[in-house]
Amino acid sequence: MSYRILLAEDEQIVREGFDFLLDWDRLGCKIVKKVKDGNEAIEFLRSNPDKIDIVITDINMPILLDGNDLPGGLAVAKYIKDTLPRVQTVILTAYDNFSFAQNAIRFDVVDFVLKSDIDIFLPKAIEKAISEIESRNKDVLELEKAAMAVKKKKQENQYLLCMRSEALGVVSDSITSEDGRFLVLALEVNDSESGSGDCNCIRGDVQETFRSDTTIITFLSPRSCCILFFGSFKFADIRKQVIALRENLFSKAMLLLCASSHEVKNSDKISEATRSALDRLHTIRQDANWFLTNPLPLLKARTKTIAELTKARDYIEFKDLIDEYLAYDIGFPTLRLDMVKLVSALSDRYPSVQGKTDDQFISDIQYSQTRYRLRHIVCEYAYNHFRIAAPVVSTDNLLVKEALAYIKHNYTKPINLSMVANQLNVSDSYLGRTFKNEIGESLLHVLNELRIQFALLLLKNPSVKIFEVSSKSGFSDPNYFAHVFYRHTGMSPKEYQKKNTL
């Protein structure tokens, strides 16, 4: 930055020679205007108040025409003090005069330089003037920052009062209307079904997640709060913050209920946005730990993806897809119906587990009361089913289909070929032969494959006993179970348990 200098000097030879007197570039300065007397100096400053930073003026110039009895240079200094306090003044004189120096001090002159020592002391005076400018600029900046902080605090207090008054149903004064971007998030935390969460300790988690210069948080209770986002914010970032908080609280056995308003464009709409967020929150209370904002997706549009995931048994992607779907603002009855359809589609391909029939899973869905419970049921179903390799069958043989359906629902029981045949009212030999011809594997092989797949799942638990796994998997003899298990996996149940405990 070059500091701009106005030179007032009545001697032409001195005035013209000033360009070569000092190394102005080194000093960070540039002479932008030269005048011959105080009248011209004041007139230029009056017309160009923002174009000069430093004035260098000879003290003993002609007296001003307005009748001021001060020497021209001091008159300029007085004008600057009275009207342009940010401009710094340096006085030049051809002789040492104590009374002039006193007046110079009175008019806040930076320095008083003798022309005989100008090459020595003027650079120091210029540096002193620059230091004063920088110090003053710093002070002004600090004052502006302080003023902005006060204004911002006042503005934020208005926003806070508006949001809190609406949340508590209290009438408040209207706030100053300002254009901008505003969005209100309403949060509430409930105990999970385990009941082990401490919902009275969420303040720190919420503040740590959302604290910024463009958010205002007000707690309505130990369990609930409203958050105002204003200025520059991205909805995708807010969603990520919500998800992070949700996972954090979920790890502490707490459920996050969350709803947002739509974005509004003026501060006088903050109350409306707050009411919208709270109303939406109330509609999902005890119904979700999800972020309800985006438009409703079509489950049909996800059908292909779900089918591909089920075929690949990709539980993680499946769960993420369910999470994504449940995050949309969908009526709960519709959600339940969609999840029943999904489980029904899965049930055609994957067998039941833990003795729980598909009808029982569907019944659990129909009687679920919260999104959390609904998610738990569907994900449990998928988690268990994706890990059991149900036979992929393409057959039109009704007998084989009925045999597979019976096996799927009863493989954890001590059933065998004779029991299945008796259930279907056919002979053992006929069923066995037909099944083998259609599937390419014996009924016993398919039955044991399902049992072993389920046993693999049970053995993830390090505390379960091998004989318990044998019994729960449908084997009546633990030794036979160990034999079949080794044939399918190449290791004993105990070895598998040690290597694969959760």
From TrEMBL:
Pfam families: HTH_18, Response_reg. The keyword Phosphoprotein applies. Residues 126-158 form a coiled coil. Keywords: Coiled coil, DNA-binding, Phosphoprotein, Transcription, Transcription regulation. Residues 401-499 form the HTH araC/xylS-type domain. The lineage of its organism: Bacteria, Pseudomonadati, Spirochaetota, Spirochaetia, Spirochaetales. This is Response regulator containing CheY-like receiver domain and AraC-type DNA-binding domain. InterPro entries: CheY-like_superfamily, Homeodomain-like_sf, HTH_AraC, Sig_transdc_resp-reg_receiver, Tscrpt_reg_AraC-type_HTH. CDD domains: REC_YesN-like (cd17536). The keyword Lipid biosynthesis does not apply. GO terms for biological process: phosphorelay signal transduction system. PANTHER family: ARAC-FAMILY TRANSCRIPTIONAL REGULATOR (PTHR43280), HTH-TYPE TRANSCRIPTIONAL REGULATOR EXSA (PTHR43280:SF2). The modification 4-aspartylphosphate is found at D58. GO terms for molecular function: DNA-binding transcription factor activity; sequence-specific DNA binding. Residues 4-130 form the Response regulatory domain. It comes from Sphaerochaeta pleomorpha (strain ATCC BAA-1885 / DSM 22778 / Grapes).
